[in-house]
Amino acid sequence: MGRGVSPPATVTLRPGLAESFLEERVPDPKPEPGDLPEAAPRRPERIGVLGGTFDPPHVGHLWLATLAADAMGLERVVFMPAAQPPHKQGQPITSAASRLLMTRLAIGAEGLFELSLIEMERSGPSFTVDSVEELRALYEDASLFLVMAADSLAQIDSWHEPDRLLSLIEWVVGPRPGAAPPDRAALHERFGPAAERIHLVNGPALDVSSSEIRQRVAAGRAIRYLVPRAVEELISEQHLYRP
Ligand code: ATP
Question: Which of 96, 104, 156, 214 has a beta carbon 3.0–4.6 Å from 241's, enabling a disulfide?
Fold first, then answer.
């Protein structure tokens, strides 16, 4: 025989407490036409831009975009796959069509993320500085932020016109395992006062790379959870990265 359930204890409110509680919630009286506050100027939209080869896109890319958006209050992050990554000239890379499709699938239904084809639609090497000029014309009222991880920042002097790039767009730099955390003093020495336009973001870092995923697929090893499921399925269907 189970014991009976005791009735709920009655809560007695101090006299007048409920009334004062309700009073606090009485909505403000409707403003008269004359005292409407002036409309606040709209803050420009804050958009992150994450360029890469995305061969394939993986959770490290998605997490970097999320971390940057969270730290910088970005309203969207545009994933911009490179047609011809300048750093990977001479290296075999997967077709633009497959990388685009994988990036589309990786973004999935995430409302914060978008895909940009601007580098795919341009011939010649995909210099980020050229893409940023295009994006600035496209989103002229927005504040743009170039998102990258510490390994990219460490190699920035091998990029095309890094100083002009920094003058065109602020940078947001996230952590990456294997890359030393950026050094503020060294950035000031290199870029002078413009170093203020480089925002360093801290947070967890995922030790995953596209090259390791390619190697794992080639060796028949698991990549589940390193890439979104739809990307894993496409890799398998299209026999990508197989020897
Ligand atoms: P690969 O291994 O083929 O060189 P990758 O994994 O570095 O590729 P990319 O497409 O070249 O991927 O990277 C695009 C951007 O994403 C770069 O700014 C890079 O620093 C960043 N990134 C890539 N992997 C990670 C990760 N695991 N964590 C944080 N950022 C990352």
Answer: 214
